[in-house]
């Protein structure tokens, strides 16, 4: 299974979801939900997680989290593993509670925080569990509209978009959410890029430049392949021939290796270029990679190819 791309940096905002294994319920009682919320509170104390919004459904949850320390993976490992241990011990069971890895979408907060919070708070309404969000106990909605929030839940950031007067901002936020209860709602997550980033074109560009430029392509990370600029395999082939002008065999294998690692081309496309089968491409890449590990001059030559390609 392909791994999700994790982009972590201090101050990042995320919409995080995780579902029950085989879509089974992960919350079977109010005690379960209360315990999960206690782990959110602990995550704030232990890892400085800032929880802006949440909604606990039956077989999944939604969170909007900010990470001042750039440590989302650490935070989510703590929350999910702690809750799974609690759930399993309570019910004398073993095995996975959650389905695979959690899904985290990096969010441009200024552009999408309010809309995403509305999306999170309307989940029980869309699911037909309640007619209005204030009827649902297990979301952060009531802390935005009427109740004082616990110390680990930060409502001020989102409410700040609705004015500086606390009473009026709560009222305006409620109206903002309620206006979509009866329809006309557009899913903000429909605009997610590469299943990973939600933001303007400028935001996506900045993330690619600041957070992804130093990361090489990984075929187990399709989102990274989609986001990074793709290098033309033909350009790689020509660059390898330029660095190895008198050794076409080495140029060939260097080109195969570099195409596999940096071009994002499919095995079939690389194979067509070099007249190899898919398995032949994979085997050639492995042999060349092994040769590089013990041949420093060869590694130096490959670095020269990368310079030509601007990689």
Map the helices and strands.
Layout (H helix, E strand, L loop, with lengths): L11 E8 L10 H18 L2 E7 L3 E8 L4 H20 L11 E5 L1 H13 L1 H4 L14 H5 L10 H4 L6 H13 L18 E2 L2 H12 L9 H6 L5 H11 L4 H16 L3 H8 L3 H17 L1 H14 L2
Parallel strand pairs: 4-5
Antiparallel strand pairs: 1-3, 1-4, 2-3
Provide an overview of this structure.
The chain folds into 2 domains: 12-210, 2-Layer Sandwich (Alpha-Beta Plaits), CATH 3.30.70.1290; 230-309, Orthogonal Bundle (Chromosomal Replication Initiator Protein Dnaa, Chain: A), CATH 1.10.1750.10. Helices cover 52% and strands 10% of the residues. It has helices spanning 30-47, 72-91, 109-121, 123-126, 141-145, 156-159, 166-178, 201-212, 222-227, 233-243, 248-263, 267-274, 278-294, 296-309, and strands spanning 12-19, 50-56, 60-67, 103-107, 197-198. Strands 2-3-1-4-5 form a 5-stranded mixed β-sheet, with helices on both faces. Helix 1 packs antiparallel against helix 2, helix 10 packs across helix 14 (296-309) and helix 12 crosses helix 13. The longest helix has 20 residues, at 72-91.
- What is the global morphology? elongated
As a percent range, the share of strand residues is 5-15%
Main sheet makeup: 5 strands, mixed
Mean pLDDT across the residues is 90
* Main sheet strand line-up: 2-3-1-4-5
> Which architecture of the largest domain does the CATH hierarchy give at level 2?
2-Layer Sandwich
Estimate percent helicity: 40-55%
CATH superfamily of the largest domain: Transposase IS200-like
Compute the CA-based radius of gyration: 24 Å
Which structural category fits the helices and strands? alpha+beta
| End-to-end gap | 27 Å
Query: Which consecutive residue ranges, at least 5 long each, have pLDDT under 50?
Result: none
Number of helices: 14
What's the total number of strands?
A: 5
Q: Any idea how many domains?
A: 2
| Name of the CATH first level of the largest domain | Alpha Beta
Order of helices and strands: EHEEHEHHHHHEHHHHHHH
Fill in the CATH topology of the largest domain: Alpha-Beta Plaits
